[in-house]
Design brief:
This protein is mainly beta. The chain has one domain (9-135). Helix content is 12%, strand content 39%. It contains 2 helices and 9 strands. It has helices spanning 9-20, 42-46; strands at 24-30, 59-62, 69-71, 76-78, 82-87, 93-102, 110-120, 125-130, 133-135. Strands 2-1-6-7 form a 4-stranded antiparallel beta sheet. A 3-stranded antiparallel beta sheet has the order 3-4-9, with helices on one face. A two-stranded antiparallel sheet has the order 5-8. The longest helix is centred in the N-terminal third of the chain and has 12 residues, at 9-20.
Length: 136
């Protein structure tokens, strides 16, 4: 006998509200020596963040679940994509990890690893589109 379980769209939204509504986010770049993973604390990841003096700035903002919606194709509640554009100034910079943190949570939401490392020279930019969602 098979058992099928369905989670309502309203429950996914409720969970998304608890997790993300009116919380700030920070998307930042890091140069990781491969010792840190998605399980590493946010405090440790922040020690790997690039220095502002290298012409780098993190991307920050606030999430509002009122702007989210259920996505029938992916069967999850999604928020509009966070567009994180990093532009080098000064001498530019090199990084190999994009880190996503919500509020002051102890752990990061996730990491994106670039292999090989990315080097942006002064005036160059790279954009990432990040979608947060609540899935069953």
């Amino acid at each position: 006998m098979a058992l099928t379980v369905s989670i309502s769209q309203k429950e996914l939204k409720r969970k998304a509200d608890l997790a993300y509504d009116n919380k700030t986010y920070k998307v930042f770049l890091a140069l990781n020596d491969a010792s840190y993973t998605a399980e590493t604390t946010a405090a440790n990841w922040l020690t790997k963040e690039l220095a502002v003096t290298a012409g780098y700035a993190a991307v920050t903002g606030t999430i509002t679940t009122a702007s989210g919606a259920y996505d029938n194709t992916d069967a999850r509640y999604e928020f509009p994509a966070i567009t994180a554009t990093f532009t080098a100034s000064g001498v530019g910079f090199t990084y190999n990890t994009v880190v996503i943190r919500i509020g002051s949570e102890t752990y990061v939401v996730g990491v994106l690893v670039e292999s090989p490392s990315i080097t942006l020279l002064a005036g160059q930019s790279k954009t990432y589109s990040i979608t947060l969602g609540e899935d069953d």
